[in-house]
Fold each of these.
Amino acid sequence: MELYSDIKKVQQMVSNLHQQGETIGFVPTMGYLHEGHERLIQRARQENDYVILSIFVNPLQFGENEDLDHYPRDEKHDRAIAERNGVDMIFFPTVDTMYPNALSVEMTVTRRADVLCGRSRPGHFEGVVTVLAKLFNICRPTRAYFGMKDAQQIAVVDALIEDYNFPVKLVPVPTVREQDGLAKSSRNVNLTDKEREEAPAIQEALQKGREMVQQGIKNPLTIKNEIRKFLESKTHGKIDYIELLSYPKLQDVHHIEGQVILATAVYYEKARLIDNVVFDADGQLAYG
Amino acid sequence: MELYSDIKKVQQMVSNLHQQGETIGFVPTMGYLHEGHERLIQRARQENDYVILSIFVNPLQFGENEDLDHYPRDEKHDRAIAERNGVDMIFFPTVDTMYPNALSVEMTVTRRADVLCGRSRPGHFEGVVTVLAKLFNICRPTRAYFGMKDAQQIAVVDALIEDYNFPVKLVPVPTVREQDGLAKSSRNVNLTDKEREEAPAIQEALQKGREMVQQGIKNPLTIKNEIRKFLESKTHGKIDYIELLSYPKLQDVHHIEGQVILATAVYYEKARLIDNVVFDADGQLAYG
């Protein structure tokens, strides 16, 4: 496994790989790798000749109230996980390497950003697309891997790739779950025993919504109301939002016709949990 | 010479070229090719294995008062010029191909845009960087060629490439001139005989400014005043601006230390002419 922190060296390396006709799988992360990241790496490993993992805590995607300085880091642990899963190169640039000067050309996300979790994170997706445009140009991957847990991020990255014709295939990877269906998250350890017991209701509720669509109910409001009732009966968590939007455009729908996302966020005492399902007008799951 | 209008096909073609280790020279244009474009193509031809010329009248870079609909087009003439100068591929997409949907991720040029000609063309450089980011991702060139006549455009493209790490080398090509030094321009035919006789004073004035720097004068104000006096004595044209800025950052300078641009725009009755010189603190020309 090779370690790179210099942009030009990565570009030279990647140029050689292209000349050899090798496919490149790319997993962009902020480090502190967990099982979700591992799943991304494994998928990249299966589908590509060469796998690049980037580790960069991107200051641009942190809001004013978000704690950049205390973002957890564990380089040694990350390296071990990367090595174990067959990563060929880790790219871990410094902030000065990635942002040597103030940007003269800035990116704004004018669609897909102001819904779901994006509503409460102004500027977050600007930071995400800026760093990804850079990383795509540095690593020039054949495929880039993102977890469906953050479905909105995938929708925004999809827009970046489509709008600017980046020659990279976006691969959404299904959310890793516990036996009882709860989406894996580093935040789950902050749940009380009782909360942990109740939390699988989140995924149950979303699947219930999907089943309603399978049964022919196409009115988003009916579905959201039903889910709200179900969640309120099954858990003491406070519902932040329940949204049903077109996917990946993330626009309001009044009647379910094409692909949609059903997503929710629930506050517990010391953790806010999110989850989603993406499916079509027949209730067929879009990803795994 | 091959003709392409489909984005995916160009990307496939270009991917093959990369695999063969071929270098790609890229000349982006809006068509209606003239001698300045020819010079760019010739330089690209000299320095690369494969030369791509794009012809796309980009609606995004036209202002509200700028006449997109009447922008001149002459496909047959353009093809002949391309063929004659050894272009390997012309990429000529439609507007629908380039902008199938409203953009979700938009680019804003926050530096280098609001000076020189950019001052009177709000939104122009946003359109330029947007289409170039797309064209770079479609054609993935080794080198991209731009004329120094539009030095501000080069400065903005330089920012785009640096800020987003596009793996492309920007090649500024010196302005093509008449025997008497007047920068070639399709607008020169709109000059009266008397105006045409006076117009070489523009380049003379700029060279005079450069000579002042060679002689040790480092105060931009002194230089600009001298040039203004010279121009006013030599031509009846109305001076739009005379600016001396750092290059390529295009910031005000109070004392000439690094590389600078000295640029002017002059109104004649039916034509507005622009010209510039870029040089260092010793008055040494930067290009050509």
Amino acid sequence: MYQSECAEYIIPVRDALDVLYGRWKLPIIISLTFGSRRFKQIIEEIPGLTDKSLSKELKELESNQLITRKVYDSFPPRVEYSITEHGRSLSKVINELRDWGNQHRKKIIGN
Amino acid sequence: MYQSECAEYIIPVRDALDVLYGRWKLPIIISLTFGSRRFKQIIEEIPGLTDKSLSKELKELESNQLITRKVYDSFPPRVEYSITEHGRSLSKVINELRDWGNQHRKKIIGN
């Protein structure tokens, strides 16, 4: 018996998790929330993130309309990534995750 | 140059993601938010979840103090899972993910 009340939460939360899946998407969104970035700048801001992972994640974030990719007609061509309004709408999710992460650390590790 | 303002978000969000990692933990927390459940009841409420995955996820959720496992001294023994106060503190994260998931579906799929 599939509890519809429960499903009202599980289905949209699963939709969100399917888009934000993995360790890197939200940190990349956070980095771009602070301003447009070039590839290397994003790498510098997120410890442990490899070029290969970043390339893959940027493509997925772009396909979900959370970021845009702009190529500047210079030589060599300059590529810059920016957050979209839809990407910015994740700010409440990010704030709640930040607060809960801090709370969890205090509870589990005690600092 | 590691932007400390950016790190103030990325570190706790990563802490939260490390605990909530994967497709099943938040749906299991949602299910238990609606009341204590037995193993089979959780399986029924979350489409696609296998016994093997649920066993693994329940152990991890328990080790992070998000749920408790109670064995009733009946024959055969009855096992029931319940959410803890720490688990309940995820309600704001869950509400924001639900709202964003609904919003994302409207934007991307248009319904």
